[in-house]
């Protein structure tokens, strides 16, 4: 077997691959998720449904991966590992649909601008993280480029409108994949705001509304990303060097809220993909965010402070695994509107996905921005539970307390690499530095955090008993350690489902 440094670098000169397809998709974002999910599906549609579509990727920020992507002529490998119909499956795909990457901040500016004039362009997809669909008041039409993603899109659409003289046949289908609620509506609203702010005229606004289709979408696939721990072994197995390998699970679901004619244009069903084009995606979103993402965010501080590093280790663990199972079954599912039996089947699948023995999903990679994640993923279940039961959901409250202790930034004396908004880190830093290790001190700290209305959009001290119960857990976790506290909370005997 060749040594890794003797392997050829992946590119179109070294490997015989399909001819570049016509560029019909413009993609904002070159991150792991889009490459392992959207582009992987587009590649399948090309190969199995004759879609004949290339993707040009635009880097939404000045720093990013398009240079690396271009060194590989847009090629990269997706490795999907997991269980499929009870069998362990591993699948390598050389994704060939990406034609090139452009960095609009550098010398690629004119190529980027010229994208607006491509007659064959039909779709825009994006994933710029939850932070990306945001209005930037400083953006101007003449910027090269606008700072925000919606600003870039608004300017590009306006150039297209001008170039094609408002031709209704040259509108685009825009499908954002950011994990924010009603992402398509949110993006459209900001684009319209720029149209107004930049005084682009009523004709442009009508063209935006009538010739273009903004879809809301929900994405689901766990993508741990670049396999840094085993890249040497993987490259040796692949037989080439690829700096953009991305690892994900087998499971995938893309729910697109949009018109039924989209099925004709996006032949996902012909490629056997799990894409649903629906009139209302709300039930899919709620169940995913509250069960899957909610479980991720709830287990992260508990598992990490317990000494566990991955989601797999957490769900395998007797105490932590049972804790998370009962949190989902007893405290989240009863708060959702869909039938419990259906939700329990979904939860079974989620837990099976978390067990995926082939993928190491580090909880620290989920921990980024945990405060806002708790607000969107866990707080709605907590509030609903309180309303229904007139009592607190014990496990969810414990997880909230664990989160506060996580933001102390120490595990067994070692620093935790916290990543959140500066304001969040500063507030926790100040409060923890003043903590004296007493229950009174824990109460003071907890009351301050629960009272941050800008974080939670309400004062959580108003929820009966929440401050006391959270403070008690904070005190115990800091004085006895996570292991002893959780073991005694659960009686170390919570049955596994
Ligand atoms: N990795 C997963 O398992 C997974 C699964 C489903 C959804 N997601 C969502 O996808 C998002 C991206 O995940 P990833 O794994 O691809 O991350 P990544 O770090 O590989 O890519 C992030 C991308 O977002 C862009 N970006 C970051 N901040 C931005 C901003 N303020 N404005 C514009 N662009 C910005 C970056 O330039 C980059 O293109 C996450 O926020 C997550 O919500 C991830
Ligand atoms: O990607 P984030 O950081 O928003 O959240 C971490 C995980 O909860 C998330 O990536 C899930 O794995 C994903 O949403 C599954 O589809």
From TrEMBL:
Pathway: Carbohydrate metabolism; pentose and glucuronate interconversion. Pfam families: Mannitol_dh, Mannitol_dh_C. GO terms for biological process: D-galacturonate catabolic process; mannitol catabolic process. GO terms for cellular component: cytosol. One of its GO terms (molecular function) is tagaturonate reductase activity. Keywords: NAD, Oxidoreductase. Its EC number is 1.1.1.58. Residues 24-265 form the Mannitol dehydrogenase N-terminal domain. It catalyses: D-mannitol 1-phosphate + NAD(+) = beta-D-fructose 6-phosphate + NADH + H(+); D-altronate + NAD(+) = keto-D-tagaturonate + NADH + H(+). It is an enzyme of class 1 (oxidoreductase). It comes from the Bacteria. PANTHER family: ALTRONATE OXIDOREDUCTASE-RELATED, MANNITOL-1-PHOSPHATE 5-DEHYDROGENASE. HAMAP family: Altron_oxidoreduct (MF_00670). Belongs to the mannitol dehydrogenase family. UxaB subfamily. This is Altronate oxidoreductase. It comes from Paenibacillus terrae. The lineage of its organism: Bacteria, Bacillati, Bacillota, Bacilli, Bacillales.
């Amino acid at each position: 077997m060749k040594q890794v440094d003797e392997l050829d670098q992946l590119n179109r000169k070294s490997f015989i691959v399909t001819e570049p397809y016509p560029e019909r998709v413009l993609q904002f974002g070159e991150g792991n998720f889009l490459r392992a999910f959207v582009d992987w599906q587009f590649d399948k549609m090309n190969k199995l449904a004759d879609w004949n579509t290339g993707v040009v990727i635009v880097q939404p920020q000045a720093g990013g991966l398009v240079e690396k992507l271009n060194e590989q002529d847009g090629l990269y490998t997706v490795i999907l590992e997991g269980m499929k119909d009870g069998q362990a499956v591993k699948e390598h795909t050389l994704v060939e649909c990406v034609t090139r990457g452009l960095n609009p901040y550098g010398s690629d500016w004119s190529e980027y601008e010229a994208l607006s004039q491509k007659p064959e362009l039909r779709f825009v997809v994006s994933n710029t993280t939850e932070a990306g669909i945001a209005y930037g008041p400083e953006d101007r039409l003449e910027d090269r480029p606008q700072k925000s993603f919606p600003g870039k899109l608004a300017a590009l659409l306006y150039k297209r409108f001008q170039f094609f003289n408002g031709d209704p046949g040259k509108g685009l289908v825009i499908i954002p994949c950011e994990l924010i609620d009603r992402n398509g509506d949110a993006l459209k609203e900001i684009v319209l705001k720029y149209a107004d702010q930049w005084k682009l005229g009523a004709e442009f606004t009508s063209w935006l509304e009538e010739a273009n289709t903004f879809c809301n979408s929900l994405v689901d696939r766990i993508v741990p990303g670049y396999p840094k721990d085993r890249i040497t072994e993987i490259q040796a197995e692949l037989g080439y060097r690829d700096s953009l390998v991305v690892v994900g699970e087998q499971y995938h679901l893309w729910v697109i809220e949009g018109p039924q004619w989209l099925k004709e244009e996006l032949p996902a069903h012909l490629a056997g993909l799990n894409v649903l084009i629906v009139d209302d995606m709300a039930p899919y979103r709620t169940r995913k965010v509250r069960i899957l993402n909610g479980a991720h965010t709830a287990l992260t501080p508990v598992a990490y402070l317990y000494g566990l590093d991955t989601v797999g280790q957490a769900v395998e663990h007797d105490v932590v695994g049972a804790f998370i199972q009962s949190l989902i079954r007893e405290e989240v599912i009863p708060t959702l509107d869909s039938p419990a039996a259906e939700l329990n089947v979904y939860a079974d699948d989620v837990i099976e996905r978390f067990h995926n023995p082939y993928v190491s999903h580090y909880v620290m990679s989920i921990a980024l921005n945990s405060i806002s994640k708790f607000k969107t993923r866990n707080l709605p279940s907590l509030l609903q539970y309180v309303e229904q039961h007139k009592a607190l959901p014990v496990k969810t409250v414990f997880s909230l307390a664990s989160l506060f202790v996580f933001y102390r930034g120490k595990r067994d004396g070692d620093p935790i690499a916290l990543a959140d908004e500066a304001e969040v880190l500063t507030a926790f830093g100040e409060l923890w530095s003043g903590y004296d290790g007493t229950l009174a001190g824990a109460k003071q700290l907890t009351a301050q955090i629960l009272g941050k209305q800008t974080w939670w959009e309400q004062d959580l001290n108003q929820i009966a008993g929440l401050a006391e119960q959270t403070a008690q857990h904070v005190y115990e976790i800091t004085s006895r350690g996570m292991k002893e506290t959780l073991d005694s909370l659960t009686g170390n005997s919570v049955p596994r489902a």
